[in-house]
Design a protein that fits this description.
Helix content: 25-40%
Strand order of the largest sheet: 4-3-2-5-6-9-7
Distance between the termini: 66 Å
Largest sheet: 7 strands, mixed
CATH architecture of the largest domain: 3-Layer(aba) Sandwich
Number of helices: 11
CATH class of the largest domain: Alpha Beta
């Protein structure tokens, strides 16, 4: 019998509990369950999304930092008890559970750590074939944005270097308790078949972050710290601003910089 005593949403954890079952069902089914039989849900709260994951022929794991939510999940989803990780996702070594195996990620992500969740996913990209979930709408749009867009940035380039990014649907504030002040957006990242890039991937991360930290400058000026040779600076790619460059342009640029050293 379920314990219907709800968990109190905690502002410092960025908790906004989804209350709409249809939306929870739709988010759960954004994953291709054949991509990996292990699925990790981040921040399950009271399990509105978890319930639909548990119906699938997969191993569902959840990671939850809120002790009150952990107690609720153990009482209401006893089948999940052995797969509840009572840790901070950003600080925890996930291979204590997955031991190098692949796993997909899903969740209604706390807005205050959502971009950090994506960066950790990118670090573990060799193990994560698929990722989907809910963000603040503008963050979801930014991750999926293409070059030329005003919101195209670091997350757009780095996520799309390794994954196909799709903005799926918008979720209104009133389906949460408490309602956030902004709309939410659900996206899906599907890892590319060939996600090993034809460049120094560490250097690519550095180039992209350096360029967009001075996004109004041309690449020639924003990348001054790389001590570009006069010959390299003459390349027309350096006349452009970072939001004008595609992912493949950034990969080509990274190779130019590596060969210029």
């Amino acid at each position: 019998m379920k314990n219907n005593q709800p968990v109190r949403a905690k502002k410092h954890l960025g908790q906004h509990f989804l209350t709409d079952q249809t939306i929870a069902h739709d988010i759960a089914h954004t994953l291709d369950f054949s991509a990996s039989k292990n699925v990790l849900e981040i921040g399950p709260g009271m399990g509105v999304l978890t319930e639909y994951l548990l119906e699938q022929d997969i191993q569902t794991y959840v990671i939850e930092i809120d002790p009150e939510s952990v107690i609720y999940l153990k009482e209401n989803y006893p089948a999940l008890s052995n797969n509840i990780i009572e840790k901070d996702f950003l600080k925890y070594d996930l291979n204590e559970v997955f031991k190098g195996a692949s796993f997909s990620i899903i969740g209604n992500f706390p807005y205050n750590i959502s971009t950090q969740i994506v960066f950790k996913t990118l670090e573990m990209r060799a193990q994560i074939p698929q990722f989907s979930g809910m963000f603040q709408k503008e963050v979801a749009q930014r991750i999926c944005a293409k070059e030329g867009s005003k919101v195209y940035g670091i997350l757009s380039v780095l996520a799309q270097a390794f994954y196909h990014a799709e903005y799926l649907f918008t979720v209104p504030p009133q389906v949460f308790n408490p309602p956030p002040k902004v709309e939410s957006g659900v996206l899906r990242l599907t890892r590319k078949d060939n996600f090993k890039l034809d460049c120094d991937e560490t250097l690519l991360f550095k180039v992209v972050k350096t360029a967009f930290n001075q996004r109004r400058k041309t690449m020639r000026n924003s990348l001054k710290t790389f001590n570009l040779s006069d010959n390299l600076k003459a390349n027309t790619i350096f006349d452009q601003r970072p939001e004008q460059l595609s992912v493949s342009d950034f990969i080509a640029l990274t190779n130019l910089l590596e060969n210029d050293q």
